[in-house]
Amino acid sequence: MSTLFSRLGGSAAIDAAVDLFYDRVLADERIRHFFAETDMARQRAHQKAFLTVAFGGPHAYRGRDLRSGHAHPVAEGLNDSHYDAVVEHLAGALATLGVEAALIREVAAVAEVVRDDVLGR
Prior knowledge:
By secondary structure, the protein is mostly helical. Helices cover 67% and strands 0% of the residues. It has seven helices and no strands. It has helices at residues 4-8, 10-26, 40-54, 66-69, 71-75, 80-96, 101-118.
C-alpha cells in the first residue's frame, strides 16, 4: 500500500499545499495572530518537513514534539476552534490543488490524531 504522502503527490504536492495553506492562515482573522512574530519562511519549511513525515514520507523533520512546540500558542489561548480553522485551511488548500475528497479526509484524520498533543491535553 502506498503512503498518504505518495498518494498526495509527494514533495512537490506537500510544498504547494503548505504554501497555499499558510497564505490562507495568514489571511484568517481567527488565527493569524498566532503567527505575528513567526519567521514564516522557516515555519513553512518546518511544516513541509513535518507533514512529509506525518503522511509517511521520508523523515527529515528535526523540530520539537507537538506538545512542546505549541506550548506558547496554547498559553496564548490556542483552542479547538483555532485548531478547527487550521484543519479547514489545510483541507481547503488541498481541495484548491485538486486533491480528491477521500484523501482530504485521510489528512483530516491524521490531524485529529495529534489534536490533543497540539492543544496540550
